[in-house]
Amino acid sequence: MHSFTSSLSIVLLLSIMVVCRADAQWTPQNPGAGGAFTSIAAGPTGILLAGSDLGGAYMSTDNGASWVCIGSIGSHSGLARSHVRSVAFAPTNPARMFLGTDDGIYRTTDTGVGFTRVLADGYTTAIAVAPSDSNTMYAAQSTSYNDIGTLTIYTSANKGATWSVYSDNEPDSTRILKLVVHPTDATIVYAVTGGDDSGINPFVSTTNKRRFERNPWLYRITNDGSTWTKRGPGGGADSVWDVAIHPINPDVMWATTRKDTAAALDKVGDVWKSTDGGANWTQKFHRTGCIAMRQDTPDTVRVVNVYAGSHSPSNATAGVWETLAGSATWSRRSYPGEGGNPWNPGWQSLEEAYGKSSYGIAPTIGQNMKSTGRDDILWVTAQFAYRSNDGGDTFANAFTNEVSSGPSKWLTRGLENVTVASIYASEGTSGLLFQGYHDLGIWRSINSGASWENVNSSADSLTGSWEGHGGNTTTILGDWAQPSIILF
Length: 488
Known about the structure:
This protein is mainly β. Helices cover 5% and strands 38% of the residues. The chain has three helices and 38 strands. A four-stranded antiparallel β-sheet has the order 2-3-4-5, with no helix packed on it. Strands 6-7-8-9 form a four-stranded antiparallel β-sheet, with no helix packed on it. A four-stranded antiparallel β-sheet has the order 10-11-12-13, with no helix packed on it.
């Protein structure tokens, strides 16, 4: 997603940092967000973890009001890579967390203060803990982030301290997006494979993207990893986007699919229910997206359409759809463009805010592991993070704070997977700063960085195909003789 361009301004900034006192306090000065966020989850006490492809992992202990970067390169926490593809928690110990990177799996037992690599090499796309036995874990790895290579599933019997091969005979040469362990039998694992209409991630070759897209299936893995059985709707032939299992009655499963033809991939699909562990399925509703099963009342099931809200927030299929316990009908709980109660997009426009993850449909939505009294839905997109504390009635941004309005000025909450490509300080106006980013375009501060204003313009097409919603600004230069003129 990002290209990395050196600029004189970055060199100068780094030079300034070198001569500063070692005990100087540095604070983030950017609007927040970035790209791309890869996954999100919440632990048993409500701690949030979000993975990113550049900045490592971010942790929040206050429900997304603020974030700290943990485990990034240079933080001396033991993480050797900053591309974090998957995150996971131990259900019985909130201090034990796991990060799946492009260099294996890292484990912390002190809430992110220090990490130890417990599984070397490989691109770890999914990690899951068995609900019935917290000692048992599973993880899926591909050879690298930009190639399919060999797919291997590993297992751990000691809370992720050590790992061994569970299965390396996956039949379709694809990538695993999600692992779900059977709620009462830790020897049974379900895997959602494949991708979405954009491929698994932007670094995979076009040929491999198409292969990923054609293999979005649901597998049931048994017999110590030796048996892979397709268990999706339509006898395993339909394209599966997401799956959820009832935590009390595991014979009940829900899946979402999309319609897929050889000519084109569309975004229309269905919600399916199985009452026999996935052997047979019944179509229940003509919508698709990610599944959010309420933890303390699992007969309440939500489907979040992570496609339709992007670019058309009032679309008839957009939003959160819900069926209640004992009900055979579905209703729309909320949608992004709902009058009088719009979802909060942060500094982005509503049309560009709510969408899918860049790394597959299934990782887009996360939920809170704390089951009692929580009804949270967590959401990461290619650039942003959002949260709902009311089961999808409303969503709020989790990456930025509006410092002032008219025009709006913003400051990060600490969730800032950004690459700064250029910085310019005005010679003629005190406190006037400009920053150029990959993906976020150009931003201006009139108060020495205390807050930032989005100055990307769609009217004059300064950001090209981004149409004012971001862009790549690699160079900013001011005219010293005419301080009001800025070139970028």
